[in-house]
């Protein structure tokens, strides 16, 4: 059984850098650790929470119960067919390192998701996405371990019920599973996605090849230029979801705000750029106590030092209120709130 520690400081274990402590803490390095911990009656009576890389997460000052950090390693090619190669990674693998490993194997499909913080196991929970690509596009299946009894279950892509920054693991199956291994289906025929954001422009400006590796480097360049490094200033990446609204509402807003940024989002709907809305509401580079919206990218909430959950909540509510007042559009936070 893994060692269970008490009263552990989680400040350095969440990318927002919020002051937080865990009443009990353990690291999962093999799947059987879940069964062993569950067999302990005292631990089994506690509430359990799963911690990956600590990104996309807002912690309370005290995490009661047992916090489990997923540290399951491994990445390997597990098979192929006429159309695709299948690769597997342990839930504790760093997402960016795994993406770069697939590219080193000559495999494409994940390059647009380069430099997204977090772990492989956390990626399906949020259905992470960037520059026109989401995890759901290549995820084949995953193996999850029950926090209730330690049993395992395989979730196929459809079982995950993916949505925009959403999955069954945030709703019907929330707080029930620890994701141990994820298998991706990477196509042999390469299709590059360069039409979203600044990727095409970056490929040209940096004279990068139009290959999966070139697209990955373009994504890395753009993200480093626009987004803060959590090692330098605490942040959880994009903090608000891009709101999806009816086309008729978009057209009404466009008449009043001709510079409104929007993208198609299915029949009769469109997606608005939350960062643009926040900037127009006056929050780009603005602080509220120890937190604020990043001066380079209004969509990113940053911790200037010493912030706690209450500070994040206050800024979240203030930004939501101002965007609603100006545009009549609700903003939904992207991170998970414990």
Quick summary:
The chain is 25% helix and 28% strand.
The major β-sheet equals: 5 strands, antiparallel
Name of the CATH architecture of the largest domain: 2-Layer Sandwich
**What is the fold named in CATH at topology level of the largest domain?**
Uridine Diphospho-n-acetylenolpyruvylglucosamine Reductase, domain 3
How many angstroms does the end-to-end distance come to? 25 Å
CATH level 1 name of the largest domain: Alpha Beta
Layout of SSEs?
Blueprint: E1 5-9, E2 21-28, H1 32-39, H2 41-44, E3 48-51, E4 57-58, E5 62-70, E6 75-80, E7 84-90, H3 95-104, H4 123-126, E8 129-130, E9 133-134, E10 139-146, E11 152-156, E12 177-187, H5 199-205, H6 212-226, E13 234-238, E14 244-246, H7 247-256, E15 262-264, E16 269-272, H8 274-280, E17 287-288, E18 291-293, E19 300-303, H9 309-327, E20 336-337
Parallel strand pairs: 2-5, 3-5, 4-20
Antiparallel strand pairs: 1-2, 6-7, 7-12, 8-9, 10-11, 10-12, 13-19, 14-16, 15-16, 17-18, 18-19
Helix pairs in contact: 5-6
Written account of the structure:
It is a single chain. This protein has 338 residues and is of the alpha+beta class. It folds into three domains: 5-70, Uridine Diphospho-n-acetylenolpyruvylglucosamine Reductase, domain 2 (2-Layer Sandwich); 75-187, Uridine Diphospho-n-acetylenolpyruvylglucosamine Reductase, domain 3 (2-Layer Sandwich), CATH 3.30.465.10; 234-337, Uridine Diphospho-n-acetylenolpyruvylglucosamine Reductase, domain 1, CATH 3.90.78. The chain is built from nine helices and 20 strands. The protein has helices spanning 32-39, 41-44, 95-104, 123-126, 199-205, 212-226, 247-256, 274-280, 309-327, and strands at residues 5-9, 21-28, 48-51, 57-58, 62-70, 75-80, 84-90, 129-130, 133-134, 139-146, 152-156, 177-187, 234-238, 244-246, 262-264, 269-272, 287-288, 291-293, 300-303, 336-337. It has a five-stranded antiparallel beta sheet with strand order 6-7-12-10-11, covered by helices on one side. A four-stranded mixed beta sheet has the order 1-2-5-3, with no helix packed on it. A hairpin with a 3-residue loop joins β6 and β7 (84-90). The longest helix is centred in the C-terminal third of the chain and has 19 residues, at 309-327. The two termini are 25 Å apart. 43% of the residues are buried. The mean pLDDT is 95.
């Amino acid at each position: 059984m893994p060692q269970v520690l008490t009263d552990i400081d989680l400040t350095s274990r969440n990318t927002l850098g919020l002051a937080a402590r865990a009443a009990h803490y353990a690291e999962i390095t093999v799947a059987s650790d879940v069964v062993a911990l569950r067999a302990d009656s005292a631990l089994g009576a506690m509430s359990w929470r799963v911690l990956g890389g600590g990104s996309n997460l807002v912690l309370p000052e005290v995490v009661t119960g047992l916090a489990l950090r997923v540290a399951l390693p491994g990445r390997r090619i597990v098979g192929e067919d006429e159309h695709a190669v299948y690769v597997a990674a342990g839930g504790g693998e760093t997402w960016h390192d795994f993406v770069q490993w697939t590219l080193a194997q000559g495999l494409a499909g994940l390059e647009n998701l380069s430099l997204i913080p977090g772990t492989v196991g956390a990626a399906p929970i949020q259905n992470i996405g960037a520059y026109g690509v989401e995890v759901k596009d290549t995820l084949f299946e995953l193996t999850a371990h029950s926090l209730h009894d330690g049993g395992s279950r395989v979730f196929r892509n459809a079982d995950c019920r993916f949505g925009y920054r959403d999955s069954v693991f945030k709703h019907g199956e929330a707080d029930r599973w620890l994701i141990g291994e994820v298998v991706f289906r990477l196509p042999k025929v390469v299709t590059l996605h360069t039409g979203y954001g600044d990727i095409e422009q970056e490929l040209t400006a940096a004279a990068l090849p139009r290959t999966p590796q070139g697209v990955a480097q373009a994504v890395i360049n753009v993200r480093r230029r626009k987004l803060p490094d959590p090692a330098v200033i605490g942040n959880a990446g994009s903090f608000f979801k891009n709101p999806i609204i009816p086309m008729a509402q978009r057209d009404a807003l466009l008449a009043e705000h001709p510079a409104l940024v929007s993208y198609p989002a299915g029949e009769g709907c469109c997606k608005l750029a939350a960062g643009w809305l926040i900037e127009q509401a006056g929050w780009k580079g603005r602080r509220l106590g120890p937190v604020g919206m990043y001066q380079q990218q209004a969509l990113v909430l940053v911790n200037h030092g010493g912030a706690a959950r209450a500070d994040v909540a206050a800024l979240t509510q203030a930004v939501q209120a101002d965007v609603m007042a100006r545009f009549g559009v609700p903003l939904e936070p992207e991170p998970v709130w414990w």
